């Protein structure tokens, strides 16, 4: 039996459920195949940073496959057309792949499955990207969870899935294996942000640095995760978000690595538990998107679609460019522009600021993130923005309004993060680094910064905008009594389709 494995967001040979099953079922006669989809490049929320990451990951995957005596077959076009053609050319009896969970990608995969079945080729689909796939946990009434804590509790009652062994043998074949397209040939220009090292080997090195605390500061990583993960100047996070997004490392490999480290060192147990909890947030947002696909374009709580957003284009531009006059906000937006990434705590701060200080529609911020983030993921990005905007799954989230000054003082107390990304504030004292406009004139002069020229004055008054935001949300909420979405999407299995955890 010959099987074509369709690589997508699983750009690795290790811990790959569909590839592992194909190697087992085909007695190692597995043809590796990747199809670039024109529809993906045409999306309005495409980010050049992510295209660059995928090209780097594909280059490493291609080299790894070549080292095993095979070649990564490549094609460009609608997968519903190129997959049947490739399967016929490879004399494949079946095509295996790992499922996607976004609405448009689910529809595409169903089209591919129908086209392959019409061509007489079997298909088999697997779960991969989450610890607990959608539909595997439901509440006591048989409905999907819409609150994180009971969702997490239900998931924790399940065993953590085991990683799959690395596939070492792949088939030789005659399918086309052209050179990877260049950035320019795909119609993109090199982004201003620094490239993020992409590929399976880089992902595993990042995991080992996180587990072993061998990052830029001694004792960094997992050993500081639970206590320091919210401090953007501290290297306490895994830096694996883009790898999990594009599957250059398996989520089971990550989870078992973290749990294994904690099993060998009791001091790491609380840190490991907190890290796994954060992975479950990623699962939770994917489940919400799966069951309630309307969140892709609107509020989870539909009454908040009636919000009358204010704000101006000039204010939005100031937010995008990191010149709002609030240092922690500006530092985050400049980090995004320079790196294609942003610390998670700072993502929450800048999102709260856009929606509840500038009173600008969360969807504008969500789109800005997706067009710049190397780790931009529809479910996680959407879930995070709706959480911050107060339109998501929390019971009474619109009351949560971050004060950007207090957030900066709490999570960047001596201004290390701000000074890195806002160097014009380098000499402002710690007492005023998050509110330089309140510093006595002699201190401002001594710091060598001309407020309003070298660094902007605040573009809004936080206290005033806070009251305006509360009124705006209360008005929208009062306009509709229903606070939960209707008609959640029920999990289904199509005839002839197998999905395995």
Q: Using the CA coordinates, give the radius of gyration.
A: 24 Å
Order of helices and strands: EHEHHEHEHEHHHHHHHHHHHHHHHE
What average pLDDT do the residues reach?
91
Count of distinct strands: 6
Structure description:
- The protein is mainly alpha-helical and 501 residues long.
- The chain has three domains: 1-128, Rossmann fold (3-Layer(aba) Sandwich), CATH 3.40.50.620; 200-291, Serine Threonine Protein Phosphatase 5, Tetratricopeptide repeat (Alpha Horseshoe), CATH 1.25.40; 302-478, DNA Cyclobutane Dipyrimidine Photolyase, subunit A, domain 3.
- 45% of the residues lie in helices and 6% in strands.
- It contains 20 helices and six strands.
- The chain is globular.
- It starts with a strand and ends with a strand.
Concise summary:
The protein is mainly alpha-helical.
Name a few traits of the molecule.
Rossmann fold, Serine Threonine Protein Phosphatase 5, Tetratricopeptide repeat, disordered C terminus, DNA Cyclobutane Dipyrimidine Photolyase, subunit A, domain 3, six-stranded parallel beta sheet, 501 residues, mainly alpha
SSE map:
Elements: E1 3-7, H1 17-25, E2 30-36, H2 38-41, H3 48-66, E3 73-76, H4 79-89, E4 94-98, H5 103-118, E5 122-126, H6 148-156, H7 200-212, H8 225-228, H9 241-246, H10 251-264, H11 269-291, H12 313-321, H13 327-339, H14 344-357, H15 362-370, H16 378-389, H17 404-411, H18 416-421, H19 441-447, H20 462-478, E6 499-500
Parallel strand pairs: 1-2, 1-4, 2-3, 4-5, 5-6
Helix pairs in contact: 4-5, 6-11, 10-11, 11-16, 13-14, 14-16, 15-16
């Amino acid at each position: 039996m010959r099987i074509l494995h369709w690589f997508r967001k699983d750009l690795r040979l290790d811990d790959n459920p569909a590839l592992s099953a194909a190697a087992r079922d085909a007695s190692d006669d597995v043809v590796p195949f990747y199809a670039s989809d024109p529809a993906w490049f045409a999306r309005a929320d495409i980010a050049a940073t992510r295209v660059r990451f995928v090209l780097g990951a594909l280059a490493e995957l291609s080299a790894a496959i070549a080292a095993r005596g095979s070649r990564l077959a490549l094609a460009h076009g609608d997968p519903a057309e190129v997959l049947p053609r490739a399967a016929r050319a490879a004399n494949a009896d079946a095509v295996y792949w790992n499922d996607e969970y976004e609405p448009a990608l689910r529809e595409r995969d169903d089209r591919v499955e129908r086209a392959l079945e019409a061509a007489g080729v079997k298909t088999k689909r697997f779960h991969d990207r989450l610890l607990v796939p959608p539909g595997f946990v439901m509440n006591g009434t048989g409905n999907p969870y819409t609150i994180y804590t009971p969702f997490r509790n239900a998931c924790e009652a399940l065993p953590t899935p085991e990683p799959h062994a690395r596939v070492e043998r792949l088939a030789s074949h005659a399918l086309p294996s052209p050179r990877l397209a260049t950035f320019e040939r795909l119609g993109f220009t090199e982004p201003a942000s620094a490239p993020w090292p992409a590929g399976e080997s880089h992902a595993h090195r990042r995991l080992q640095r996180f587990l072993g605390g061998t990052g830029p500061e001694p004792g960094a990583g997992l050993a500081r995760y639970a206590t320091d993960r919210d401090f953007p100047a501290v290297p306490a996070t895994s830096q694996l978000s883009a790898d999990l997004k594009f599957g250059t490392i398996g989520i089971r490999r990550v989870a078992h690595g973290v749990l294994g480290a904690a099993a060998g060192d009791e001091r790491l147990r609380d840190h490991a538990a907190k890290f796994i909890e954060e992975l479950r947030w990623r699962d939770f947002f994917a489940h919400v998107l799966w069951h309630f696909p309307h969140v892709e374009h609107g509020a989870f709580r539909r009454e908040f679609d009636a919000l009358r957003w204010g704000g101006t284009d000039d204010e939005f531009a100031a937010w995008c460019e990191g010149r709002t006059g609030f240092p922690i906000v500006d530092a985050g937006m400049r980090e995004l522009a320079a790196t294609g990434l942003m610390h998670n705590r700072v993502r929450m701060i800048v999102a709260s600021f856009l929606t509840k200080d500038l009173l600008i529609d969360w969807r504008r911020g969500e789109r800005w993130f997706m067009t710049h983030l190397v780790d931009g993921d529809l479910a996680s990005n959407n879930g995070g923005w709706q959480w911050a905007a107060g339109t998501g799954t929390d019971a009474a989230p619109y009351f949560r309004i971050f004060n950007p000054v207090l957030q900066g003082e709490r999570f960047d107390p001596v201004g290390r993060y701000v000074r890195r990304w806002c160097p014009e504030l380098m000499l402002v004292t710690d007492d005023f680094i998050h509110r330089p406009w309140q510093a006595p004139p002699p201190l401002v002069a001594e710091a060598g910064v001309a407020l309003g020229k070298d660094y902007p004055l605040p573009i809004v008054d936080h206290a005033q905008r806070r009251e305006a935001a509360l009124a705006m949300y209360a008005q929208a909420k009062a306009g509709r009594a229903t606070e939960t979405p209707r008609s959640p999407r029920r999990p289904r299995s199509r005839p002839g389709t197998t999905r395995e955890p």
